[in-house]
Specification:
The strands form 2 sheets. The chain has a 3-stranded mixed beta sheet with strand order 4-3-5, with no helix packed on it. Strands 1-2 form a two-stranded antiparallel sheet. The protein has 2 domains: about 100 residues, Winged helix-like DNA-binding domain superfamily/Winged helix DNA-binding domain (Arc Repressor Mutant, subunit A, Orthogonal Bundle), CATH 1.10.10; about 70 residues, Ferric-uptake regulator, C-terminal dimerisarion domain (Dna Ligase, domain 1, 2-Layer Sandwich). It is built from 7 helices and 5 strands. It is an alpha+beta fold.
Length: about 190
């Protein structure tokens, strides 16, 4: 069993390496400047299937690149989106997430922990949507058709349910806890 797990991990590692190299090549081909900070951000994004937010990327990269600013991460993600190398996703309350997968796909979102993963989508689904739009919104041009599957990931579904999850169905992941703002006193 361990050999399968190790083999699966090696296969996943190779896929991640390929994704990193592919995205780095696409960044170069798009003519974006390849600074050490941008390369680190691109590597982190390409190797991560969780659709990280700019803040998550900044927090991960900050220890190894202490002079990098949050603005650098945010602006790099914006440049990748503008170059057609990724897209920003607002799937739930909380931060916008970055997705480097530009192939048609859907997403699965965990209502409890907020985990996001890609789901391959059938190529045929777009046609019924276009037909429905032709009837209800003539002249509308479809750019993309996506679905978001919401529920509980495996880890959350097997854990002990919390009373708030049992009491009411959740409309989406909870927003991260933010401390109350302090009142500023005037001198």
């Amino acid at each position: 069993m361990q050999m399968r797990t190790a083999s699966a991990q090696r296969g996943k590692h190779r896929e991640g390496d390929t994704a990193v190299l592919t995205l780095l090549q696409r960044v170069k081909a798009a003519g974006l400047k390849m600074t050490p900070q941008r390369m680190a951000i691109v590597r982190e994004v390409a190797a991560d299937e969780s659709h990280p937010s700019a803040q998550e990327l900044f927090d991960r990269l900050r220890p190894s690149m202490p002079t990098m600013s949050f603005a650098t991460v945010y602006n790099t993600l914006a440049a990748l989106c503008e170059a057609g190398l990724g897209t920003s996703l607002s799937l739930a309350p909380g931060s916008t997430r970055f997705d480097p997968n530009m192939h048609p796909h859907d997403h699965v979102v965990c209502d409890r922990c907020g985990a996001v993963r890609d789901v391959d989508s059938p190529a045929t689904r777009a046609m019924p949507a276009q037909q429905a739009l032709a009837r209800t919104a003539p002249g509308f041009t479809v750019r993309v058709v996506e679905q978001i599957f919401r529920g509980l990931c495996h880890e959350c579904s097997v854990s002990v349910p919390r009373s708030e999850d049992v009491a009411r169905p959740s409309p989406g992941p909870r927003a991260p806890h933010r401390p109350a703002k302090r009142k500023e006193t005037q001198p």
